[in-house]
Every structure is written in C-alpha cells, then in structure tokens.
Amino acid sequence: MAATPHPTPHLEQPMEQHLEHSPEQRRAADIIRLLTLYRPLLDAFVIDFFTEGLWTQLPLAWQAALASATPLQLAGLLSGHGGPGAAWPLSLLAFAAAARALAFPRGYPRGAPRPPCQNSHLHPLLRRHVKPKKQHEIRCLGKLLQQLSQATGCERVVDIGAGQGHLSRFLAFGLSLSVTAVESDGRLAGLAERFDRELLRELRKTRTLGHEDLPRRCPNRPRRTLGPLTPRAPQHMAGRLDPAAPWGEFLLPPDPPGPSPATRNPLGGPEGSEDGGRVLVTGLHACGDLSPALLRHFARSPAVAAVASVGCCYMKLSTALQAPGCPPGYPLSASVAALPGHQLSYRAREAACHALEEYEGRLRRGSAHLRAHCYRAILESLIRDADPGKRHLGVQTGRKAHALSFRQYAHLGLPLAGLDPAGVPLDSGAVGAMLEQQHKVVAFCTLGQLLAPVVETLILLDRLLYLREQGFHCALVPLFNPQFSPRNLVLVAARSPLDTVLAGLAKDSEDGDSSEDEDPGGAEPPREGQS
Q1: Which PANTHER family match (predicted)?
Q2: CA–CA dist 100, 91 (Å, integer)
Q3: 210: phi then psi, degrees, rounded to nearest 5
Q4: 491 forms bridges with which residues in the sheet?
C-alpha cells in the first residue's frame, strides 16, 4: 500500500451524521479484529525473546523469510515500499498491508530529512530555552490555535499541562492571544514565569523586535523578517486537572507546590470563563489520562468553544474505573467500549508510543542502535537463570548501550539487577548463540512496530468517537513532522464546523508558511472530509 505523501486531516464530518455503522466505527471494529488475531505478537515483550521463545511462536513461513531478511528489506516491509530482493509469505504481506491500511496516515515529508535545527519562523526570543523539536511543535500548534481563534472569535486560550510555558509564550507574545497556562508542578510554573520576565526585559531593552540577536541558524537558509512581539505575558496557574470534578471546579492544588499561587479557575462558573467569555483549551502532549480529562471537560463545559489535544504516554492511560464518577482514560466512547476485544494491555499501549519513522530510519541505515534490544533480551535471560524471581526489572544502562560490547553492557546491567557479573557466565556458548540471533530480534521488533500505529489509531479513534457521540465537529490532523515528533496527530474539536480552520491551514501551506527549517517537507494543504 503506497504511503500518503503529505499530511491531511481525517474524519471531519457533519455533526448530524448518524454514528451507527459509520466509517469510524467500522475502522475501530476492523482494528480490534486485527489486534485480536495478533494479540500474542502485540502483547509480547521483546526482552522475553529468549526466555519465552518468541521466535518459535511465529508461523514457520514467517520465520524462514524473516531470518534471512536484511535490515533494508525489513524497512521496506514497514513502509510498504518493498525492499531489494524481498520475498515475503502472502500471510505476512497481508498482515503488514492490513496494519498500514487501518492506521491513520501520519504524513510524510518531501525529500530527505535534515536534523532539527533552529526554527526561522519563530522570533529569536521565543527560541530561548526551547529545543528545535519543541520549536517545531509550538509553532505548528500555535498556528492551528490561531485559526481556531479566528473561526470561533475566542481570543483566550487555556493551555493545560503547560510545563515551562513554551507554547503559552508563543501564543501570548507571538500571536497576541490572551493565555492562561495551567501546570500541575508548581516549580515548572515558577520557571515559566521567570522565562516570561526574561523575555519582557529583552523587549524593553532592545525595542527592536524581530531582528536582533539571531541565534545560530541552519546553513544556507534565508534570513526571514519576523513580526514584532506583543509585550503581554501569559498568566500562569499552578494546579492539577480533576477529571471527576464539574467543569466549573476542575482545578486541584499543585503537587508539589511552587512559588506561583493557584488562582481562579480559568473556566469560571456557569456563565462561562472567568471574564464571562468563551475560551479555547489545548494540551501539547498531555500525558496519560490528562488528554481524556481535557476532552471530558470540553464536552461538559459551555465555556469552551474548541479544543486541540495532542496525546502521549498511552501506557499511563487508566483502563478501569478509578473512583466513583471518574471513568477510565480508555475507552472513552460508548462505540469502542461496546466492541468485544477492545481491551488494550499495558504492553500494547506502550507500543503505541513507539517512533515508527525513527525505527525505519535505523533499519535503512543499519544503525548500531538495533543491537540494544538483543542485548536487553540476553540480559533478561541471564537474570532469570540466576534468579527466576527477577523479571522485567527496570534495568537502564544509559543511552550509549548500543556502542558497548555485550560484556561491557552486562557489567553495567547486572549490578542494577542485584547480581554480581563475576558469578554470571558472560562468555558461555549460550550467550554467543544468542548474540548470533540479533537479526531475528530485530525482525521480531519490526513486526511489533507494524502494529504500533494501529494501536495509536484505535486510541485516538476512541477519543474522536467520544466527541462525535456528544455531537461535536472533530478532525484528526497530522500536524507535526513525524520524523521529529512521533506523536504528531492533533485531535481538534469544536461546537461549530471546522471548515474555515482546515481551510486556514491549507492557506498557510499554500503560502509556504508551514515549511520549517527542521521540516523540509512542510505540509500539503489539508482537505476536508478525507478518511
């Protein structure tokens, strides 16, 4: 199946469409059938590759083909673009094709990717303290929120899980929106206020907005003329979202407390927001249950005109009732909850967080990083042989594990499991035999990578169906370059049609406004109604 060349939004449909047997429900049902067929593969931990004999659980025809596959051929299996000399069993091709067809297209940049670097679309003062990946994300999401603001007439934005305030700072200083930033960690809220003060001091000092103190740029990129910043900082609040509370009372005290005092609820009371107007709510990579909580508050709060949510850390989603009045983070929708087999294990939700494009790139480059999974699986086997009661320990040997020999790796990892390397046979024939199976471990990981986007699609589809069941207009937009930001799908929902918002994104793309220094591909103009 050929990959969609550029990002397009998915599943924006009229609010009055009846949900029964809708394309979204059929896709959810098909995904669950696929995941049920391959549940053992989905729920397998790669570190159990040797201890549980995972290779022997694959069909014999798959074993034969995968055992002789090169990393480049495995990359072709992932992408659907084929691989030189690959001859896959039809059942394996059908599995891969079904997985790719059921996953939401994530967008593919044009040309060869460059490493992320400074974003020339952002004012230099807004790049301070912000890594290039985050620069890309806050600018793309900021422009989407600007379109939502223009379409709804709302100039107030509530940024939930604001962290150090990078998105809020861009919205307020760069886009002239009135922003309330809510962060559960009081220390981060205090740090965000410090960064705001630094920026305000620089503005007062230079009085030359948009041209001074440019940081190091990507080579051979033209210098851009940027508009002035608005000297209006966000309002920062230290507080936690209470998913069970009524929408007018949704903040809890911060944990841990910080120097920034908790203030009034930005959603206010029954008459609307704090100043009586409506607001937009957003969360950039709101972790675990925070994203579902945002959607629930949007659904029951008339003060919220629209929401733009980017989720992450799906393994932290609750899947059972936490407390009276506090439903789980998955499933949200009645549609998915009613489907037999919709349950997702911790392992499946963890897999949904994988960076598919990064793994494909490692396969194409034959990266040394690929050996890390084999190392960890061998270490697991040695730990279990030494002490069968020790299983799936959180052994972290550092980011450079792939650059070590296995002996060096084991000497770092075994003490973390409470074992003395001197008492473990690291030079045995069994260890050597396992090291020779690294290509099989890589092939097994590739199969799991094929299912990862399908699981993420089901989770996001559940959220979209939940909003559709409440009667809202919604769309999923692959907004970020997935090579730099793997969690790149943004769920947008509003109480009014999203046509003008999607058209605004299209105009940005046609004007070349979406082309980032670290994203050479930019985005194709979005088309409404594509599923």
Answers
A1: CGI-41 METHYLTRANSFERASE, METHYLTRANSFERASE-LIKE PROTEIN 25B
A2: 14
A3: 100, 0
A4: 309, 476
